[in-house]
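Chain particulars:
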Amino acid sequence: MSRNTKSRRSPLTAWLCTLDAEQLHRVLSNRPDAGAAPEPRALGELADRLQRPGSVAPAIRRLPLPCLQVAEALAALGETTSRSELAALLGVPGPQLDDTLAVLADHALVWADGDGRLHQAAALRQAWPAPLGLEPPLADLLPGQTSEDLRGMLSSLGLKPPATRQQRVTALLEQYGSAEWIAGIVAKAPTPTRELLERRARTKPVESRSWIVFGSPSPDVPAAARWAVARGLLVQDRHGFGPARMPAEVALALRGADWHAPFDPVPPLPALARVSAADVGRETASAAGDFGGHAAAVLAECAARPLTVLKSGGVGARELARVGKAVRCDEPTVRLVLETAQGSGLVTREGDRVLVTGAYDSWAEEEPAAQVAQLVGAWWQLPLTPTQSRDEDGKVLPALARTRACDGCVQARRGLLAALGCLPPGQGVAETADLGLLIDWHHPFAEQLPQDERPFATVIHEASLLGVLARGALSPLGAALGNVAELADQARQLMPPAVHGVRIGSDLTAVATGAPSARLTSLLDSLADREARGTASVWRFSTDSLRRAFDAGHDAPAIEADLAAIAGGPLPQALSYLITDTARRHGRVRVASAACVIHGLEPALLAEIVAHRKLAGLGLRQLAPTVLVGKASVAQALAALRANGYAPVAEAADGAVRIERTAPQRATPVPRPRARAGRPGTPAPPDLRSLASKLVGAPAELPLPDPDRGIPYDSDTEEIFGESAKHLPLADVRQLAHAVHTGEAIIIEYVDGSGAHTVRSLSALELDPPYLNAWCHLRDDARVFALSRILGVMPT
C-alpha cells in the first residue's frame, strides 16, 4: 500500500490537545464545517479539516478588521514568529494584541506553542499574494538558488563563503536578520540602485515589475538591479523566469524603524444620540407595520394579477412600477417584498410569470406580526441584497433574477448587525449613514454596491424598512435575527393584532385604524376601492365598486349584513341608498352569447342603448323591442356598456346569470423526488458541544487504515476512495464516502483532463470505481469524475 501510514503530530494538533472542552467548542462554533458529518474521531483529523484552504478562506472573511490586520502581519513575518516581533511590526505594546490573538485562536487560525511562538494555519499565507505589500522572506527565496549563486552573494557582500550550501544559506540569513546591517549595505549602493531599492520597498510587487529578466542577470537588466541581485537584496529565479523579488527583510529595513503595519483595534465611533427603549420599540412597530401592510398589498396584487417575467429572466422595471403604482409604494419596497417572499416560498416563477404559491393563502390568514416575522427572517437568510437595482455599469437589474450567491452582500448584513450590537446601551447613531464605517470595520469583506452614494446605504435602508434598525439603534427584531421563535415572539410583542372592524362614514368611506385582518381586507376589497394604506387603511364605496361585487355574485342584503357586522352598527343612509340603487339597476340589461345578444325587460332602455353614440362600435341592431344583437364579443359588449354607465350582467347559454368571479391563480406544486431509503437530503446539524467533549477524551491521532497491517477502513467505500485517490487525506476520504452513503451534497477541488483546477459542488453521488458519477452544479449537468483527479473535499 502506497498511502503513508506514519503519523506525525502537526503543530495545530499539538495545540488542540491543550484545549479544554469549552475552548474546543468555541473553535468548532466558529468553524462549523470542521465538525460536519462524519464527525472527526481524533484531534488530528480535526486539525486536517481546519487546515483546508476551503475552510480557512470563509473563516477569514468573517473576521473583523484588527484580526485581518494581525493575520496579514503574521503572514508577512513567515510561518512562525514571536509575539514581540509581531508587536514591533504593528507598533503597539504586546498586551494590546491579546484580544485580537484570542479571537484568531478561537478560529484556529493563529495559536501559540509552548515556547510562546505564534503559528498560523498553513492556508493563511495564501490569502494574501503579498501581505503588507511584501514578498516572501529570504528563507523562502534562497531554496531556488544554487550553491554557486549563494557563494557569489556572500563574496559580493565581503563575507567569506562557508564550504557547504546549508552553511552559506545560514550565513546569509544571519546577516539579513539585522535591519541595521541591511540599511548599511544599501547606503553603500550606487545612487540608481539605492533609488530602485527604496522605490521597490514601498511599492506592491504587482506594481513594481517594470522589468522582467529571462535568464541570469544580463545586460538586459538595469545595472542598478544587477548590483542588488548580486548581493541578495533582490533575488532572481535561478532559471531567470519572472522578475527579481525583494525579500521581506530588505523591504522592512528600507521602510525604516518608524514604519508600522496598519492596526486599528478600536472601531470608529460615529456621533451618538440618546434613545430610549420605548422610542426604539415604537419606531420598530411603525416600520414593521408599514412593511407588513405593503407586503400584504404587493402579494395580493401578485395573487390577482401574476407578474410577467422578462425573456432574460426576472421582473422588469416596468412591471415593478405597475405593482408599485397599484399598491402605492416605491420600487425598493416592492423589490424587498418580492425577494423576501421568494425566500419564504410565498412566490415562485412558473414559465413566463411569477405566481404566489399555496403557502401564500396560509400566510395571508396569519396575524401581521407572524407575517412580518417570516419575511424579516427570510431577509436575514437571503444570499443577496434584495433592493440592489443597478449593476457595475449602471444598468437596471430585474427583481427575482439573480441566482448566484453574493457573499459580500451577506457580510454587509452581518456587519450591520455587528455594528449595531456594539453601540453603547441607550445610544444610537445620530446619522445612520455613519454606520457604513462601522460595517467596514466589523466585516471588511462586506460588499459596497455600485448604486450606494454613501457606504452600505442600500443595506442600511433595507434594515430601516424592516424595523431591524430603529432610531439609529438595534431594534428587538434585529436582536432576534437568526432565532425563528424569538423573532416571532418579539414581533408579537411589538405589533398590535389585526383589526376586524372599521368605521364607515356618510362620505362613503370605510376606515380601519391599524392592520386590517385578511377577512376584513378581502371583504372590503371586493366591495370598495382602496384609497390609502399604512397606519390607517381607507376604502371608498362607489357605484362601480358595488357593481363589481354584484357581478361576483353578492346580493344587497348580504352586503348590508356583512358591512353592518364589521361596522358594529347600522350603515349610514347614504351607503344604504347607494347599495339599494346599484342593486336595482344591476341586471336590467343582459348580454348573452351569439356574437352578442343584448336583451332586457325595458324597451325604452334598449332603444336608448341602440341610439347611444359611444356604443356605435358594437354594431347593435334591434331585432325586437327587448332584444338587440351586435357584432362585438360578449366581453367587448360588457366592457363598453359598463364604461358608459350601464350595469349589464352576462348570461350563460342556459339563460342563467354568469357569476364573474376570478379563480385565484397559484403556482403548480412541484413534486419533490422521493428520497432513497437511508438517504436524507438535508443533514442534521451536528451537536458541536457534544463533539468537543468527545474529542477532548479521544486520542490525538488514530492509525491510518492499512489492510496489509490489519488496520481496516470503516467501509468498503472508504477503501475504494483510499486506494483510488491516494493523495487525499483520511479526513477527505471519510467525508467523500459519507456523502456517497447519505446522498448529501459535497464540494470537491478537481483537476480536469486539461489540467485546469476547478471547484465543483456535487450531489446525487454514485460510485463506479475508478469514477464518481454525480450531478455537477457548476455545469448543471450529470458528469463523471475520475477519483484520482479529486484533490480535496469540503462539506457544503
Remarks:
- The chain has six domains: 11-128, 138-255, 272-494, 503-569, 588-650, 703-795.
- Confidence is low (pLDDT under 50) at residues 1-7, 207-221, 671-681.
- The chain has 33 helices and 24 strands.
